[in-house]
Amino acid sequence: MKKIIAFLLCITMLCSVTMICVYGNELIVSTMKVSLIQQTVTLNDEEFPMTQPPYISDAGDTMIELEALVNTLGAEVTETDGVFVVVMDGVEMRYTLNSSQVQIGTQIITMNSPVVVSESGVAMAPLRFVAEALGADVTYNGETEEVIVVSSGGFDEGANLALLFKYSGKNKIGNSKEHWRFVKTDNFDMAEYDEGWYDFALGDIMLSFMVEKKSEGFSLEQYYLQMQQTDYYSRSVMYDKGKGVHKNVPYVYTKFRTLDTINERYVYETDEFFYLIDLERTFESFAAAKENIDVNAFLSSLEFDYNGGEEEDTVDLATIDFAEQYTQEKKTEYVDGNYRWTVQLNDTWEVNEYYGFYNEVSIYRPSEIEEESEFDGLYFDLGVYSEDPTITIKTYSVADGQTTAQWAEKKRALYEDICNPEVYTISAVQNVTIGKNQAKHFEVCCTVGERQSVEKLYYLSDGSYRYEIMLSYDKREEKNETFLNSANSVIFSFVPGTIDASEVGKALEPDSETEILTVSSEFKNKLFTLSYPCLWEVEETGNGLYVSRSGSYTDMLSLGLLSSMVPELSFLFGMIDDVSLQIETESLRYYDDEMNQQISSPEAYMKKNVAQILNTSGALLTVTMPTEIKEVTMLGITGYCVELVAEAEGTKIYYTTYYLPYQEDQMITVTKTCSGNCKNTIYEKALDQVISSLKLS
């Protein structure tokens, strides 16, 4: 985190500027030292000639030759009619002679001291301001009596924002378009913008803020469930969760304890927006960090009705352009810094993880499977990729009274709930040794046509933490004789670290798939009312409703049976929802051969519709009707039930459609779609409960 010292110290100090530049793969560090006592300047400990010696301004700033400093920091400067234009990484900064105001991008910032011309005719500027404007960090070393300015090696918009907040003199930060605002603390020192998140710092507290426009059908309660069950917020132990009201605005929150940090997430709901806030901070003791004064001050100062205007006390981010930064880091060996476990990697496995936030670390290797298909070129065009073999390591706190064997059996039982036994085989739990630790192990295999995917799961505990290690891969990877040996060398090298678990607190398990499905929401439109699992999706179509676990009506229309009809495109199947329900009204009116309008009988409409589907069978696709058409009663209406199965190379999709006469010239159709993977699972059972809740409004 950047630390900025707010003022220069005494007149007798030594000023040093350290620059970092990258040329190719070499890191070159250049250090400029400015001594006010000796009035000398050195670059890399060699004398650096300047026309005008540095001096202290009346405002207490160290003044230095603008051009020399800018060039040494890697930027360029030009002068026209008393305006000095500094350009770095495409960002323009305009310093005007004898003026304290500077324009950086779209921002106007006021310095303590203006740019002036010395007696020798060169432009002199405040050292600290110019260095910080070029993205450098400024600190003072009291032992060596040096002010050290360290360049980040590149310029980003965050440096502009840090400068703006430091010199603006305004005590609040907000966004008038998104209607939020809060009061700056004394130790507020930085801001950046990255992929929709505003990132701030309150001393050593990292604060991220995001605003989402509200959409119909998503509630604060659904956010609350997601915050508990998603991996992104299940790092280590959830020690607190709850709901509240802040200045008439409802909110929910969860709090998690990691080895090094405390992570909190808050979601506030107004009529127009959801406001998402993440807080991450380090601590010396768990109890002290839970009630941090800066966090409480920030939360209590939040406002969600800020509209801008002539207020002079607020930096309005709605008027500032942001640049997005992206970073990526890969490792070839790994020691987990939070839980201190280690694995030994070989040349074929790499680590891809986010530091200090998730409880999950992924280790992967490129797939060696060569897909033999004329449609290979579509993989990348559609953003769908063949899955690489992956080793995933998750860390959990120890659950009271639960042994490793009980934990493994619980996980195995969950697989039995969510996996179709016609497609999946699950082995019994077995004993295995990983390093010096006794562990439990079972395998899950999924067979679809000629393809088989494998998950090998391992569970162990060192008394302080529990660990789940999962190897997932396409069984065709085993054609490479070294594959399993390579994977096992990583898995069985796992060694838990020595950690102090005394401050972890009691484990709160995240909600399981089964528990989440029991929380329902109600949806009602002009014709239909139903209850559905609140983390599922409901969409209104042109003449009905579409309910799905994770897909969308648009996906269903565009892809439909495509993945079954064209097995070479089976990878597209993942884009279609695995369980869904489509409820629509259909017209029974049609034109006969003489172009006379007729009304079909419900039975004739149903038989014609079913016959059209059965006729889609061909060389690649088989559609069958395994049972006879049944007479059923639904919504208080007597109609028909038809079950169909579409199959291509072992991939099956199950359709159950109810045809219900409605009024004189209409039919209601209710179509349940279930993939082969989800047949006979908790997901199909949940969909059946949705169907049983269906009513006419």
Structure, explained:
The chain is an alpha+beta fold and 697 residues long. 17% of the residues lie in helices and 41% in strands. It has 14 helices and 48 strands. The strands form 10 sheets. Strands 28, 29, 30, 31, 32, 33, 34 and 35 form an 8-stranded antiparallel sheet that branches. Strands 38, 39, 40, 43, 44, 45, 46 and 47 form an 8-stranded antiparallel sheet that branches. Strands 18-19-20-24-23-22-21 form a 7-stranded antiparallel sheet. A hairpin with a 2-residue loop joins β21 (237-246) and β22 (249-257). The radius of gyration is 32 Å and the shape is globular. The model is unreliable at 1-29, 230-234, 324-329, 373-386, 503-507 and 558-576 (pLDDT under 50).
In short:
This protein has 697 residues and is an alpha+beta fold. It is built from 14 helices and 48 strands.
Features:
14 helices; disordered N terminus; alpha+beta; 17% helix; globular; eight-stranded antiparallel β-sheet; 48 strands; 697 residues
Helix content: 10-25%
Q: Any low-confidence stretches, pLDDT <50, length ≥5?
A: 1-29, 230-234, 324-329, 373-386, 503-507, 558-576
Distance between the termini: 56 Å
Number of strands: 48
Inertia-based shape: globular
What can be said about the biggest beta sheet? 8 strands, antiparallel
User: What do the pLDDT scores average to?
Assistant: 79
C-alpha-based Rg, rounded:
32 Å
Query: What is the oligomer described by this structure?
Result: single chain
Structural class: alpha+beta
Query: How much β-strand is present in the residues?
Result: 35-45%
Number of helices: 14
